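// run 5 | inverse folding | seed 20
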């Protein structure tokens, strides 16, 4: 009962704060897009605090490098974790259903986010092509290669689209492991649980390393890295 009451209170506070924060960020984006990235960490820290999450980051995110960022997908809160560790300007490939929410839609579009319909192959391919153009402008792309949130807490099957994007742009791939966000709010419940979220930044995998492996080869490497960094498997395995 305590958890239910606590969750209700947190949602009541979280939703209006998120809407107000997104509105401010949208205004910032029309003034200077860099302002959004400058203040996004503070905004996301406030949201995390409201939900009862403490985000800790291990490792250093590289600067001045064209990157495709790949992480495991545990919770609705995952996109709000990126500002805690990413540097410079970045955007992401998102499922098109995210555009159903007015404030969230405007925020994503101002950040050059690329919506795709996973069930429409042609539209998904066009989305990847757009992502390539964005990446070549020096804006890093964040991808959740599972395509949907896990319902077990374990890494799901990875989709190949993000790996084709990396191959086509010769960008480095950097794996990011998120451990704890699933406890905060699993996909199967609305209730929240206070927790620590540990983010582990992996080492970038340059194109020169994975070029000869092909999409299937680099997918397997990233899959193992994500499982290791997120704590699903032991690093010695």
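// decoded
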């Amino acid at each position: 009962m305590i958890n239910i009451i606590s969750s209700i209170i947190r949602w009541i506070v979280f939703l209006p704060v998120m809407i107000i924060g997104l509105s401010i960020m949208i205004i910032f984006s029309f003034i200077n897009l860099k302002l959004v990235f400058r203040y996004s960490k503070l905004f996301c820290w406030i949201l995390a605090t409201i939900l009862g999450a403490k985000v800790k980051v291990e490792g250093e995110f590289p600067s001045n490098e064209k990157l495709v960022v790949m992480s495991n997908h545990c919770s609705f809160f995952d996109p709000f974790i990126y500002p805690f560790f990413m540097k410079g300007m970045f955007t992401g490939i998102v499922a098109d259903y995210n555009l159903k929410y007015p404030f969230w839609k405007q925020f994503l579009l101002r950040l050059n986010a690329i919506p795709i319909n996973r069930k429409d192959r042609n539209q998904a391919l066009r989305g990847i092509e757009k992502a390539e153009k964005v990446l070549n402008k020096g804006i890093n792309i964040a991808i959740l290669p599972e395509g949907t949130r896990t319902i077990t807490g374990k890494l799901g099957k990875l989709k190949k689209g993000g790996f084709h994007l990396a191959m086509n742009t010769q960008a480095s791939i950097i794996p990011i492991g998120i451990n704890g966000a699933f406890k905060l709010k699993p996909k199967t419940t609305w209730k929240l649980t206070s927790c620590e979220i540990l983010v582990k930044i992996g080492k970038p995998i340059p194109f020169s390393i994975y070029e000869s492996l092909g999409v299937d080869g680099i997918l397997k490497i990233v899959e193992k890295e994500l499982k290791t960094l997120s704590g699903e498997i032991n690093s010695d395995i």
